[in-house]
Amino acid sequence: MNKTEDLNTLLGNVAVGLARLKGMNETAPLNEGGFKLQFDEWDWEVGVGMYGLMRHAEASGNKELIASLEAWYDWQIGRGLPPRQVNSTSPMLALSVLIDYVDRPDWEELIKDWANWLMTGLARTEDNGFQHVVKERMNDGEMWDDTLFMTCLFLANAGKRFDRNDWIDEAIHQFLLHTRYLSDPVTGLWYHGWTFHGRHNFANAFWGRGNSWITVAIPELFILVGDAIPAFAARYLTTVLHAQVKTLESLQHEDGMFSTLLDDPDSPVETSATAAFAYGILQALDLGLLSEDYRSVAEKAYDAVIKRINDDGIVLEVSDGTPMGHDLDFYRKIPNVPAPYGQALVMLLLVKCMQLQN
Question: Which of 50, 155, 156, 196 has the fewest Cβ atoms within 10 angstroms?
Answer without folding.
Answer: 196
